[in-house]
Amino acid sequence: MTDSLDEEREQIREQKKRELQQRLENGGELGGADDGDSMATPSEPIEIDGQAHLNDIVNEHDIVLVDCYADWCGPCQMLEPTIESLAAETDAAVAKVDVDAHQRLAQQLGAQGVPTLVLYADGQPVERTVGAQSKGQLEELIERHSGSS
Question: Which one of the listed residues 73, 88, 130, 132 is annotated catalytic?
Answer without folding.
Answer: 73
